[in-house]
Amino acid sequence: MNELKRVVVTGLGAVSPLGNDVLSTWEGLKSGVNGISPISLFDASGFKAKLAAEVKGFDPRDYLEVNEVLRTDRYAQFAVAAVEQAVAQSGIKGGVDPDRFSVVFGTGIGGIGTFETEHTKLLEKGPRRVSPLFVPMMISNMAAGMIAIRHDCRGTAMPAVTACASGSNAIGEAMRLIRHGYADAVITGGAEAAITPSAIAGFVNMQALSVSENPDEASLPFDRRRGGFVIGEGAAALILEEYQHAKERGAVILGEVCGYGSTCDAYHITAPHPEARGGAAAMSIAMREAGYTEEDIVYINAHGTGTPMNDVIETAAIKKAMGEDAAKRASVSSTKSMTGHMLGAAGAIEALACIMALNEGVLPPTINLLEQDERCDLDCVPSVRKSLAVTLALSNSLGFGGHNACLAFRRVF
């Protein structure tokens, strides 16, 4: 059996509710900035949920020609923008064989905004008025396809579509392509733009969304006052590269993806397994691959949605995977308290947070955590950031359908 290859991160990009690049996003995360505000993308006055974490001040024309903007869904625009940033930082363009250059990019829903627009045309104006670009704009693989076309990636090009685990699964599967020798570099991450009337109505009616009208009392992971998640949007991109390939071309290495666990609860379409078996198993696999020991100083970027069930089950999963004592020593925070739940982009933006935390020794807080639930009794970094030189960062993502993913990161010295 061939020796497994090391996989490193050489570029990052972000379009988020906290800023439209990596530095502004990271500054917002570590400073505890709340990206949640009243919905402005449509009239939400008749909806129970009136808040969201929207991307602000984004102009797709900074990255796409006008004719491209008109034939591209918002989720794909976010993806293209984040990838352009990551590619520029990495210096990968022209530095990799196109046949060994791949794309794995996640989304939970894809072009739901396009779907709503064109379906409305169908009902109001008839079938002849539906755009001939409806299908390519809507489908969930289109961000991956556009990225491959723009950057001449002739290897694997595919989406990961595993609900809220999509971004993390994309990164993990990208890592495996390199680890097992199928690619030298992979563009990966996740994108979502689902702040639309039908998505909000659907999530509200299944009682998943917070209906608070106060942005500081809406996304409340691990807090006993929590009542649901706040939907967010945006994208994050990572350039993954085989370690020796990156070294030989003189790339700046930002961190190493050193573990990945992917499991399914095989239990229920929305509810996690009550004994946290899938989440714990995914964490255990990622930790084992990362060479975890009890000497590691661990940061966990939790899935931490702020729904009543998720936060309790995830706490149990962490304890089950690490053991009670080690779990109590770990630092755990949910950046969804600031970005909202970016669905298929969540795992990607949270992977970015892990890499930045490792490099700077700063852990982003769980903001507005004022009344911690006694069932979520870990160090959840309440309200303000923590300075800590961690040696291992884990990122959890748990999605509808029972999908669980855990990514493990270390610094490269």
Provide structural commentary:
There is one protein chain. This protein is α/β, with parallel strands linked by helices. It folds into 2 domains: 7-248, Thiolase/Chalcone synthase (Peroxisomal Thiolase, Chain A, domain 1, 3-Layer(aba) Sandwich); 259-410, Thiolase/Chalcone synthase (Peroxisomal Thiolase, Chain A, domain 1, 3-Layer(aba) Sandwich). Helix content is 35%, strand content 19%. The chain has helices spanning 22-31, 66-70, 74-90, 112-125, 134-138, 142-151, 166-179, 197-205, 243-248, 277-289, 308-322, 324-329, 336-339, 346-360, and strands at 7-15, 37-38, 51-52, 101-106, 157-160, 185-192, 234-242, 255-264, 298-301, 331-333, 362-363, 386-387, 392-399, 403-410. Strands 5-4-6-7-1-8-14-13-9-10 form a 10-stranded mixed sheet, with helices on both faces. A hairpin with a 3-residue loop joins strand 13 and strand 14. It is globular, with a radius of gyration of 20 Å. It starts with 6 loop residues before the first strand and ends with a strand. The relative contact order is 0.19.
Radius of gyration: 20 Å
Classification by helices and strands: alpha/beta
Could you name the CATH topology of the largest domain?
Peroxisomal Thiolase, Chain A, domain 1
| Tally of alpha and pi helices | 14
Q: Ends: how far apart?
A: 27 Å
Biggest sheet record: 10 strands, mixed
Low-confidence stretches: none
What helical percentage do the residues reach? 25-40%
| Number of separate structural domains | 2
The neighbouring-strand order within the major sheet is: 5-4-6-7-1-8-14-13-9-10
From the 3D coordinates, which CATH architecture of the largest domain would you assign? 3-Layer(aba) Sandwich
CATH superfamily of the largest domain: Thiolase/Chalcone synthase
Order of helices and strands: EHEEHHEHHHEHEHEHEHEHHEHHEEEE
